[in-house]
Structures are given as C-alpha cells and as structure tokens.
Write a structure and sequence with these properties.
This protein is mostly helical and 232 residues long. The protein is built from eleven helices and no strands. Helix content is 58%, strand content 0%. Helix 6 packs antiparallel against helix 7, helix 7 runs antiparallel to helix 8 and helix 8 packs antiparallel against helix 9.
Amino acid sequence: MSSVKLAAVTDPKNRGVGSSSTPGVTSPPRSAAQLVREGMYSFRSGDVVGSVEAFDRAESVDASVTPFLWQRGISYYYKDMFQEGSEQFRTDVKVNPLDVEEIVWDIACLARLERVGERSSLGNFRSMMMALPPGKKDRRKIMSVVYSLFRGENGVREWDLANAGASSGAGSANEFYSLFYLGLYNESVVGDLTKASYYMRAAAASKYSNGPGGAGDYMTSVAKVHCDLRGW
C-alpha cells in the first residue's frame, strides 16, 4: 500500500499527539497525520466506524492526503461501503499505479458490489478491473501471484498462491500475504465463506502476524479485525 504521503503516520502509538487533558485548556487542532494515526488505531481496536470518521476528518484538514488514504478504503470494505471503497482505491492508483494491493482491493469491492446487485446494470465486474501499466509489476514477487489470481490471468489458481506462500517458509511475510489474500479472494470474488474463514483465520494466527516481523504491518491487524467482525 502507498506510504509516500503518510510515511510518518503509521505508528498507532503516536495517536492523539497534541491533545490536552487539562481542564479548561483547549486542545490545538489535530493535523491530518494525527487523525490518520487515530483512524488506524480505531480500526486496529475494531472500531471501523470510528476509523472512517477519523480518516474523513483528516481529509477535511488536508485534502492532499485523499489519494493516500488506502486505510480508509479498507475500512469502507468492512463497512460494506463497496462503492466508496472502490472509488478510494481507484484514486490511490492514480498516484501509486504499481501497487497491486490497491488494484486487488478494488476488485474485491467491485465483486462484492456485483454480489449485492449494485453493479448488475453495469456488466460483469471483471470488465471494470484496473490493471498495472503494460510491462510493469509490483516489486513484491508474491503480489504477482495475488494479482493474477484476482484478475483471473495466466492460469493462476488458488493452489499456486498457497504454494508460493508455503514455499517461502513458515512465519514469512509471503506466507501471511498468501493466506490473507486467499481469504479475501474467497470471500469477495468466489463467495465461499468456508474457505475464506479457513484462510483468513490461518493468516491471523500465522507466526508473522503474531511475531515481531508483523508487529508494525497494518495488514496483520486487518486479518485479525476481519476474523473478529465475521465471528471467525
């Protein structure tokens, strides 16, 4: 996910900087970066609604952060606001066209829109999928497999992604991301909640997700919140 604009706002421990708890003292206005941190903390705590509210306030403080609010796109997905989620990820791709995750999350939103009938008059969601620029690819090898699976390209199947993650070794980031996106793929594109639950629970329970390597990775929190919200 893009971190060009918000590289300094990914630490949830810094939430609320500049606020005051002293009676009678007015807190100074919070910056967009502080509000993004607040939104990320809210999401990690399972407060999806609160996270969207914080991200919206960040945008109102500084509109230039809009194409970097991929975290809000994820929150939209979990609020079943799939149209808004798709719009957010499409805005993000304009400034970060090589990030496969933005494209994949947009596909997930479009697929869910089609499933609930909101895209029925606009044709199959696959006709609306975004793509990487010709000849370009995500720098992360595992994401090439994720990309092909979600787009239905190159004959890639679920087994290919599972194998790519497993071959990287238990506890690796690649193992986590393969499990995570297999879960998201089955929930959004396939509609198989049994398999989605299996993969997402495995991602949330993985060594990477619960070890020092994944401690600062927002997506490990997404996996855990996903399972909590679905009752998995």
